[in-house]
Amino acid sequence: MASIRVAPSRAQRAINLLRTVNSASSSCPCHSNPQHHHNAHPSLNPFAGNRRRLATPMDTSQQKEYAFEMAASSIRFGPGCTKEVGMDFKNLGAKKVMVVTDETVRKLDAMKQVQEGLDREGIPFEVFSKTRVEPKDYSIREAIDFAKPYAPDAFLAVGGGSVIDTAKLMNLYTTCPDADFLDFVNAPLGKGQPITAKLKPLIAVPTTAGTGSETTGTAIFDLVDKKAKTGIAHRNLKPTLGICDPINTRTMPSAVHASSGLDVLCHALESWTAIPYNERTPRPDNPINRPAYQGANPISDIFSLQALRSTVQCLPRAVKDPDDWEAQSNMLLAAT
């Protein structure tokens, strides 16, 4: 009599996978490297270093980096602080502000707060609300073309990471109107030229807790003709100020809480497991050429570990209960 084959349950498949992973040697560039700053104990595998070099090719003829820089944006965090944005632009001496958002956020209270704040201070502004989710190069060009005739002397981004990234690039290419679009795009898809011009003030008001774009000098978009996601990364792209108001994230649906929270988790894991800054090559010949992302360092480790803890503790709560404002606030802080 033929035996009946019973399909393994999901739990059994998970256990089998864990056993397989546990019995296999690690090829992770982080954990297979005995010299990694997170490895408290020496590796028992004598070939771990060789695998590390295969996982991350290194040119031993080049000098390793010996320094790291912290170049974060100024952050204001607290419920209700969005209403201060008009005073911020007045303090900056702004006369014409370009407000960048999308059609969804334009209807929310966050936009009402910033418009009322600008009106109270008598600061003229124009609104661009055609930002795309996951920006494409052509949508970025459209935004730049909208901003150039208005000639703003400051920018305000109200929305998620796509809105903030679009505002960064509008700022860059209105400040450098004669630049070719690919001049500053990261190599090898672009020319990767450094941004030497001083950009206009940019204040970012995030309405999602995910990308942390309000604190970074990076803008990401799709280069359609190359069928690739790329971006521009330079310290001069960083917003002048990030206004992180937990009230602005309370309108997020549970699905957006979940997806943006997983974004926080991935960013924190990427930072925590990054190659240490003093293993990177080549060392820049001029500090201005030191990249925006320089590898793991003692300060980023503190931030990334706390972000991981907050995400594990608060993301399930934020997704499950839309009225759990403490969890939502902690997720916004973790993203930042």
From TrEMBL:
Descriptive protein name: hydroxyacid-oxoacid transhydrogenase
GO CC terms, sorted: mitochondrion
Pfam families: Fe-ADH (PF00465)
EC number: 1.1.99.24
Entry keyword Cell division: no
Gene Ontology terms for molecular function: alcohol dehydrogenase (NAD+) activity; hydroxyacid-oxoacid transhydrogenase activity; metal ion binding
Location(s) in or outside the cell: Mitochondrion
Similarity comment text for this entry: Belongs to the iron-containing alcohol dehydrogenase family. Hydroxyacid-oxoacid transhydrogenase subfamily.
CDD domains, sorted: HOT
Enzyme class: oxidoreductase
